[in-house]
Design a protein that fits this description.
The complex is a heterodimer of chains A (260) and B (286). By secondary structure, chain A is mainly α. Chain A has helices spanning 4-16, 24-44, 46-52, 54-67, 83-94, 101-118, 126-130, 157-166, 171-176, 212-222, 227-236, 241-250, and strands at residues 140-144, 148-153, 184-189, 206-210, 254-259. Chain A has a domain at 1-114. Chain A is elongated and about 70 Å long. Chain B is built from nine helices and ten strands. In chain B, helix 4 crosses helix 5 and helix 8 (239-252) packs parallel to helix 9. Chain B is globular, with a radius of gyration of 18 Å. The chains are: A mainly alpha (260), B alpha/beta (286). Chains A and B meet through helix 1 and helix 2 of A and helix 2, strand 5, strand 6 and helix 4 of B.
């Protein structure tokens, strides 16, 4: 008689196998496997679902299950940066689609939003910011909220995102939004939670287009450059450093500072 | 005590229209991230209701031990939210295939034999020790014929409870689904009759009152008498399930009872009304 290892391995293998000679019961388990992926990916990649339509999105889920089988309990493993985005690109290439490259780009934005929504809530470290006046700017770096991310797109993804969700399925309209500059910078951020009341909007990430200069400064902050270095770079780019910093703090993007 | 499954469509209703139920049950996996809206909303709901946390992904019957990360995250969730019940399923969900660990994200049926029992007991002990609390394990719905069984299902689960001290979450709808599916897989057409309910009660003969910690009630989309029934939690609690509930209460006593509804959700008021029906049945028994 087989061991439990054999039994479980054969059962799981049968679910992942593409054989069509299954019992009705095994077909139910196979269907559950795809539906589980469909449910999870519908939450994390809603714009991709809108752009492809449900039937094509289901095909994409099936393709994802086969090409990057789930290894852990966590459906979010497919939201590791570039994992699902690569799958979307491969899927589109295999489907011989043309002109749908923006779907993979929108997958990148969905991924940023999903990671952002799950990130730890930003809490402003008031004492640290208050002490900035006494800090040595050569040896002080800013702390960025984990609920903030930067991305570079080849079109204004924020507009496409809004348009896709407002006009579900109207791909022709969405394509009109794609005539754009080749480098478009975006910041996805979620503000701190208000301690009182329940307001759904407080948890919703905002997608903000950034100027190239703003993107450079945030990128430097992420890379741990000192305040002096940021200030000098802002000056070189003719940017108002104080205004930029005040805006970043007010939006809970920069939430503290650390002496190095 | 009676409660309902709290799904995200009802988060705001649960807080803004507080129902006269005792508790809500949430799926652990929706609250394991570091931050964001879900935990905040759960904290709000927690002010009005007791909480039961129901996990779906520990897969404690899998040959490999549960992933330390999920056990740790669940421990953190339980420490923060202080549920009065914590449960998962008597199932496996992953296996090594050609040298790679594959996770199905599903609840797969165990074989009811000694080796399987030993694995499950070991992993239940591990989780109970880590969480510092008694675990409830739910009986599963299944879509394949039982294979190489040494024990009846509830003989197996009773031994599990005796060896580990865990309690059982008795899902009455799963009992009905399994009875239907067993008959279909044996080539017989099915109708739920008193005979079926008597057979289910006989199946439960291995259990004692102290082994049971909770009941789940649900409904499923109806199918033809020769088709397999899928436990989709998409309908109101069925009449046979209510009848079985009364019989089980008479036999094993009152325990916290949950109305499970996961798809095609009804309005919050309709859902909680079902919990109140369960409470009325409990009161009739006492």
């Amino acid at each position: 008689m087989s061991t439990e290892t054999d039994y479980q391995s054969q059962f799981v293998s049968a679910i992942f196998n593409q054989s069509k000679a299954d019992s009705v019961g095994m077909q139910i388990y196979k269907n559950n496997w795809i539906e589980g992926a469909h449910n999870a990916l519908s939450i994390s990649f809603p714009t991709v679902k809108i752009l492809l339509g449900d039937a094509n999105f289901r095909l994409l889920c099936r393709f994802a299950c086969q090409s990057i089988p789930k290894k852990s309990y966590n459906w979010e493993e497919w939201s590791i940066p570039n994992t699902f985005v690569t799958v979307v690109s491969d899927f589109l290439r295999l489907q011989n689609t043309t002109g749908l490259n923006y779907v993979a780009e929108c997958a990148k934005l969905d991924e940023m939003l999903f990671i952002n929504q799950k990130a730890i809530d930003p809490i402003i470290k008031v004492d640290l910011l208050n002490s900035l006046g006494q800090a040595n700017p050569d040896k002080t770096i800013f702390t960025v909220s984990k609920a903030t991310q930067l991305g570079t797109f080849s079109f204004p993804a924020d507009k496409v995102y809004k348009h896709a969700h407002l006009n579900e399925g109207n791909i022709a309209e969405i394509q009109q939004q794609l005539i754009t500059p080749s480098s478009y910078f975006i910041q996805v951020s979620r503000s701190a939670l208000s301690p009182s009341g329940v307001d759904r909007s407080e948890f919703r990430a905002s997608i903000s287009p950034l100027s190239r200069q703003e993107f450079i400064l945030f990128d430097m902050v992420n890379k741990g450059h000192s305040i002096t270095s940021l200030f000098e770079t802002a000056n070189d780019m003719n940017m108002d450093f104080t205004a930029w910093l005040g805006d970043a703090i007010s939006k809970d993007v920069i939430i503290g500072s650390t002496t190095i | 005590m009676v409660g309902v499954g709290l799904r995200h469509e009802h988060y705001f209703d649960a807080i803004n229209n507080v129902a006269p139920i005792d508790f809500v049950e949430v799926h652990a996996e929706n609250f394991l991230s570091d931050g964001g809206a879900p935990r905040h909303l759960l904290s709000q709901a927690r002010q009005y209701y007791d909480l039961s946390i129901h996990a779906t992904s520990l897969g404690l019957g899998s040959v490999s031990p549960p992933e330390p990360e999920i056990v740790s995250r669940i421990a953190d969730l339980c420490d923060t939210m202080k549920p009065f019940l914590f449960s998962d399923h008597a199932c496996f969900n992953r296996a090594e295939v050609h040298g790679k660990q594959l996770h199905t994200g599903d609840l797969l049926p165990l074989r009811f034999n000694q080796a399987s029992l030993d694995i499950l007991c070991r992993h239940v002990d591990l989780v109970q020790n880590t969480l510092g609390r008694t675990l409830l394990l739910e009986n599963l719905s299944s879509y394949i014929p039982n294979q190489n069984q040494h024990f009846d299902e509830f003989e197996f689960l009773a031994k599990l409870s005796q060896k580990t001290g865990c309690k059982l979450l008795l899902d009455l709808n799963n009992l009905l689904v399994n009875e239907h599916n067993t008959q279909v897989m044996n080539g017989r057409s099915v109708e739920v009759t008193n005979t079926v309910l008597e057979k289910i009660m006989n199946d439960l003969r291995y259990l004692s009152t102290d082994m049971i910690g909770e009941y789940h009630l649900a409904g499923t989309t109806s199918v033809g008498s020769t088709e397999l029934m899928i436990d989709d939690h998409a309908r109101p609690v069925s009449e046979p399930c209510w009848s079985l509930y009364s019989q089980v209460l008479n036999e094993f006593g009152i325990n916290p009872t949950l109305i499970e509804w996961d798809q095609n959700l009804p309005p919050w008021a309709d859902l909680t009304a079902l919990a109140m029906k369960a409470k009325a049945i409990q009161q009739d028994i006492t």
